[in-house]
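seq as requested:
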Amino acid sequence: MLSTNIQTLIKDAQQIMKSHNTSSLIGESMSRAQSVRPMSRGEGSSVVVLAGGRGRRLGAFKPFTTINGVSLVEMVIMKLRQIVPEVLVVTDKVDELRRVVCKYGVKVVEDEIKGIGPIAGVYTGLRHMTGHRAFICGSDMIFINPRVVEFLLKQNGDVVVPIYRGYPEPLHAVYSRSILPIIGELIKEGMYKVSEILKFVKVNYVHEDQIRRYDPCLLTFFNINTREDLEEAEKILNRIDKASRNPLSDVSMLYHLLSKGKGLMAKNVKDTR
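struct tokens:
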């Protein structure tokens, strides 16, 4: 029987493709796999997806970039809306994004401050959400693990930040609405790196070993910055598809396939350190 982690990966990929009536990435055999437990919808919490980024290295606006006909931002939304009752998408391309994500029932909010990077999206998202805290991530994290997010939302702290390869991941983290005044002051002072926030609030750092309990391959941190990253993401989806077509696939081999390749292990977002 497939592990819960692998079943979740397969189920998420299957949901993405079925929602668009395109060729399923997941074989019919997996439709008979044991279902994973239902996820609770976190009361008092929201999700904020940052759909900015000019994508200079990628050569395209990241949120609208597609894999197998599905945009990156849609893939992220479809995973995260399982967890909480409210998902907000913060962007500077409001009209275009609304046309893409209107069917998902999410709220699209325009960046209140332009040209200062992700910290503006964090600030805007916290201001407009109804929850008292939010999980915040980028729109290019298409392998984000819902169980990791659930785990982070249950932890205490003004900010809950996972550590990956020795570095904090502030764009895969939980933020309390109560720190809005601090973020506002940082912006006024011209301190635009998201990592600056961590110096002035109570931070709960969650170590990599704790994340591995829910995501042994740490795919949740995978993000897309270049064409090579995009190609690697497509390969990963195809590997999941190929391995899952055989219901007797060896789980250790599937883990090996998922863990193979330099592009698989996530890169920290350059401008957040």
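Residues 4-35+44-272 form a domain with the Spore Coat Polysaccharide Biosynthesis Protein SpsA; Chain A fold (CATH 3.90.550.10).
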